[in-house]
Design brief:
- It contains no helices and eight strands.
- By secondary structure, the protein is mainly beta.
- The protein has one domain: Macroglobulin (MG2) domain (Immunoglobulin-like), CATH 2.60.40.1930.
- The radius of gyration is 12 Å and the shape is globular.
- The chain starts with a strand and ends with a strand.
């Protein structure tokens, strides 16, 4: 696991805690709604000394359940999230 979300509930931004970052591969995140449609994509260069990443600008998304798919090099992971008021 190379990242974890500080809270699985968000309003307008996601706070990611980065761990076990290897090399200088970009972090790619895909946020999908409960139907599987892609709502947002982020690609961010990550360096070994980075401990946290804030993905902001999510305030216009509708409330509901989302899946966050993260990849960093060959590593991939999925997390379930909820957007609330």
């Amino acid at each position: 696991m190379f990242a974890k979300v500080k809270s699985s509930v968000f309003i307008d931004a996601l706070q990611l805690q980065l761990t076990a970052i290897k090399g200088y591969h970009p972090l790619r995140g895909v946020l999908k709604d409960d139907t599987g449609s892609v709502c947002r994509i982020i690609e961010q260069k990550i360096f070994r000394d980075m401990e946290e990443l804030t993905w902001s600008g999510l305030n216009d998304l509708p409330y509901g359940r989302y899946t966050l798919e993260l990849s960093h090099g060959d590593d991939e992971m999925k997390m379930n999230l909820v957007k609330r008021v």
